[in-house]
Amino acid sequence: MSEFTYKGNKFYLDNKEYRIISGAMHYFRIPREYWRDRLLKLKECGFN
Protein backbone atom coordinates (compact mmCIF):
# COMPACT_ATOMS: atom_id res chain seq x y z
CA MET A 1 0.00 0.00 0.00
CA SER A 2 1.28 3.48 -0.86
CA GLU A 3 2.09 6.00 1.83
CA PHE A 4 0.65 9.49 1.36
CA THR A 5 2.04 12.23 3.61
CA TYR A 6 2.56 15.96 3.75
CA LYS A 7 5.19 18.23 5.22
CA GLY A 8 4.87 21.99 5.24
CA ASN A 9 2.99 22.85 2.07
CA LYS A 10 4.05 19.80 0.01
CA PHE A 11 2.52 16.37 -0.48
CA TYR A 12 4.47 13.12 -0.82
CA LEU A 13 3.54 9.73 -2.22
CA ASP A 14 5.97 7.01 -1.17
CA ASN A 15 8.47 9.72 -0.12
CA LYS A 16 8.42 11.35 -3.58
CA GLU A 17 7.01 14.85 -4.01
CA TYR A 18 3.48 14.60 -5.40
CA ARG A 19 1.49 17.38 -7.04
CA ILE A 20 -2.28 17.17 -6.72
CA ILE A 21 -4.16 18.35 -9.80
CA SER A 22 -7.87 18.48 -9.14
CA GLY A 23 -11.14 19.88 -10.36
CA ALA A 24 -14.86 19.47 -9.97
CA MET A 25 -17.33 17.55 -12.07
CA HIS A 26 -20.92 18.54 -11.41
CA TYR A 27 -22.34 15.06 -11.84
CA PHE A 28 -25.92 16.28 -11.47
CA ARG A 29 -25.50 18.31 -14.68
CA ILE A 30 -24.21 15.34 -16.68
CA PRO A 31 -26.42 12.41 -17.71
CA ARG A 32 -25.32 9.27 -15.84
CA GLU A 33 -24.40 7.43 -19.06
CA TYR A 34 -21.64 10.03 -19.68
CA TRP A 35 -20.03 9.89 -16.22
CA ARG A 36 -17.43 7.26 -17.11
CA ASP A 37 -16.45 9.11 -20.29
CA ARG A 38 -16.10 12.44 -18.46
CA LEU A 39 -14.01 10.94 -15.64
CA LEU A 40 -11.70 9.25 -18.15
CA LYS A 41 -11.29 12.56 -19.99
CA LEU A 42 -10.32 14.28 -16.74
CA LYS A 43 -7.73 11.57 -16.09
CA GLU A 44 -6.36 11.95 -19.64
CA CYS A 45 -5.92 15.68 -18.94
CA GLY A 46 -3.71 14.86 -15.97
CA PHE A 47 -6.18 15.21 -13.12
CA ASN A 48 -5.38 12.81 -10.31
Provide structural commentary.
It is a single chain. With 48 residues, the protein is an alpha+beta fold. Helices cover 21% and strands 23% of the residues. The protein has a three-stranded antiparallel β-sheet with strand order 1-2-3, with no helix packed on it. The longest helix is centred in the C-terminal third of the chain and has 10 residues. The model has no long low-confidence stretch (mean pLDDT 95).
Summarize the structure.
By secondary structure, the chain is α+β, with helices and mostly antiparallel strands.
How helix-rich are the residues, as a percent range?
A: 10-25%
Strand content: 15-25%
Distance between the termini: 17 Å
The SSE string, one letter per element, is EEEH
Q: Which runs of at least 5 residues are low in confidence (pLDDT < 50)?
A: none
Q: Number of DSSP helices?
A: 1
Cα Rg: 14 Å
What does the oligomeric state look like here?
Answer: single chain
**Overall 3D geometry?**
elongated
Q: In total, how many beta strands?
A: 3
**Class from secondary-structure proportions:** alpha+beta
- Strand arrangement, largest sheet? 1-2-3
SSE arrangement:
Blueprint: E1 4-7, E2 10-13, E3 16-18, H1 35-44
List keywords for this structure.
48 residues; alpha+beta; elongated
